[in-house]
Automatic annotation (TrEMBL):
Chain spans, region Disordered: 1-48
Keywords: Cell membrane, Membrane, Transmembrane, Transmembrane helix, Transport
Name of the protein in question: Oligopeptide transport system permease protein
Entry similarity comment: Belongs to the binding-protein-dependent transport system permease family.
GO biological process terms on file: transmembrane transport
Record flagged with keyword Ribonucleoprotein: no
Annotated source species: Streptomyces griseoloalbus
One cellular-component annotation, GO: plasma membrane
Length: 326
């Protein structure tokens, strides 16, 4: 055996001028290991999904926080209006008609002597109910029809496209005047049905385009090659990646549906008395706006704040779910 002592090869590092320098064994760069926990090495960070990234961005967005708090307050007073307005919205006193703010009546009285504050609070229930239920109906009907047309294509896609073209050609307000004028029901269901009838084509187009884009991805083609059925492809691979634009459009549309209900009620073909609605109160207060502007101001302000809150929420959700804006 040789008595030659073995010397380890020195660790070299590049210098700024192109040479090398001996770092020594102690200073040589070695791979860093993750600190071990009580149960072994720490696990690697898991990649975040689109939804987790979106939720993280939403929590940091002041627009989402403000609009979310406003909507939460509206939902609470829609469910329990008596919590902040103990009077009945139908309890009126003609002797106080068009009077201004008084003790216990901060918003004054309308032309029928009804408390404007109480009617404004109770009107939130109708507006929120119409907006939420109509949006759910539009989202379900439009998403299902649009997704099926985009997935299967062919004759079904052509038929759906021509049907949506027909509905897009119908003016919304004019259609409401024609269809709702022959209905005598005092409930919210005719208005909800009308909004769903004329609102689903927009969501259908959005869902169709999202499904067509998603089904062309490599992971969908790979799942199809492995023998996945159409239902599995749609529910497990395409739908989770195509639902984001539908959620964004539906959130923004919810505010417009609330405004549409108020418009139809203002024109006298939506909700009718004794129902309580912001549109009905705005219509009733319009003739005497000069003598009692407060009766028009408060329901109009509540309607504007509600619509603006849902539109701001939809904009924040769109920014969070759109990868191109990151």
């Amino acid at each position: 055996m040789s008595d030659r002592h073995y010397e380890p090869e020195p660790a070299l590092a590049a210098t700024a001028v192109g040479g090398t320098v001996d770092l020594g064994v102690e200073e040589a760069e070695t791979p860093k290991k993750r600190p071990a926990g009580p149960d072994g090495p720490a696990p690697r960070d898991r990649p975040r999904s689109l939804w987790s990234d979106a939720w993280r961005d939403l929590r940091r967005n002041p627009v989402f926080i403000v609009s979310g708090l406003v909507i939460l307050f509206l939902v609470l007073i829609a469910l329990w209006p008596s919590a902040i307005a103990s009077r009945s919205p139908l309890d009126c006193d003609l002797s106080k008609a068009q009077e201004g703010s008084q003790a216990g009546h901060p918003f004054g009285f309308d032309g029928q002597g009804c408390d404007v504050y109480t009617r404004t609070v109770h009107g939130a229930r109708t507006s929120v109910a119409v907006g939420v239920l109509a949006t759910l109906g539009v989202a379900v009907l439009g998403s299902v029809l649009g997704a099926l047309a985009g997935f299967f294509g062919g004759i079904w896609d052509s038929i759906l496209s021509r049907i949506t073209d027909v509905f897009f050609a119908i003016p919304v307000v004019l259609g409401g005047l024609v269809l709702l004028s022959v209905i005598t029901s005092d409930t919210v269901w005719p208005v909800i049905g009308f909004i769903v009838l004329l609102g689903w084509p927009q969501l259908s187009r959005i869902a169709r385009g999202a499904v067509i884009t998603a089904k062309q991805h490599d992971y969908v083609q790979a799942a199809r090659a492995l023998g996945a059925s159409n239902s599995r492809l749609m529910l497990r691979h395409i739908a989770p990646n195509a639902v984001a634009p539908v959620i964004v459009v539906a959130t923004i549309a919810l505010g417009t549906y609330i405004a549409l209900e108020a418009t139809l009620s203002y024109l006298g073909v939506g909700l009718k008395p004794p129902s309580v609605s912001w549109g009905i109160d705005i219509s009733a207060a319009s003739p005497y706006v000069r003598n009692a502007p407060h009766a028009l101001l408060w329901p109009s302000g509540a309607l504007a704040i509600t619509v603006l809150a849902f539109i701001m929420l939809g904009d924040a959700v769109r920014d969070a779910l759109d990868p191109k804006l990151r």
